[in-house]
Design a protein that fits this description.
19% of the residues are buried. This protein has one domain. A hairpin with an 8-residue loop joins strand 7 and strand 8. By secondary structure, it is mainly β. The chain has a 6-stranded mixed β-sheet with strand order 6-3-4-10-7-8, with no helix packed on it. Strands 5, 9, 11, 12 and 13 form a 5-stranded antiparallel β-sheet that branches. The chain contains no helices and 13 strands.
Length: 210
Amino acid sequence: MAPELPSGPHGTHENHVSGEVGGPVVQARDIHGDVTFQTSAQMRPEMPLHITGKTRRSRTIDLIFELGDGEREVIGKPLGAEVYVEALTAQAVILHNMHPVVLSKKPPRPCIRDMRYGAILIPRQFFTNLDDESPTLRPRPNARPEPSPDFPFTVTSSDPEMFVISAMSRYEVEWHLELEWSSAGQSGVLVIDENGSPFHHHPDPRDYTD
């Protein structure tokens, strides 16, 4: 026999919960006065950004390195970096600034310059001089009368951004980018590279050979 439910001044009280419950449940018999229930805020990802970085290479110019024993290494001439920034939440994430960071620098290896055909369409364009004491990103001038857009930018899960950074140096340089961001009280600095490896810059051989 089921136990008899206690009776209050207004009769017998019964509480039942059935079906699927998606949050906290409070059961009470007699309540006097105001009651306020608060649930925890929707969980936000610790890092609300997904970043993809890769070395930006020319589609028309190759650099050919002689490795010896008839072997060659052929790469598209490094021009800088391409960075794709996407938010993982509908809450806007503010991108305050982005900084190039030089990791190593050495005299360039001898190579041969070769031409091929191709084309590339570039969105948000910036350039940096990796030989500066503290490299910065500067918007590339465009043909339109209005100035080129500069940081800060805003991204959401439905409105990402693509950044193309053109880099210059007289040296062979390894480098990465650091992105400052903030969103809903969170903030941080995110290192951007090419799948865990630094971006690589090699100058055009015409810039350092007679």
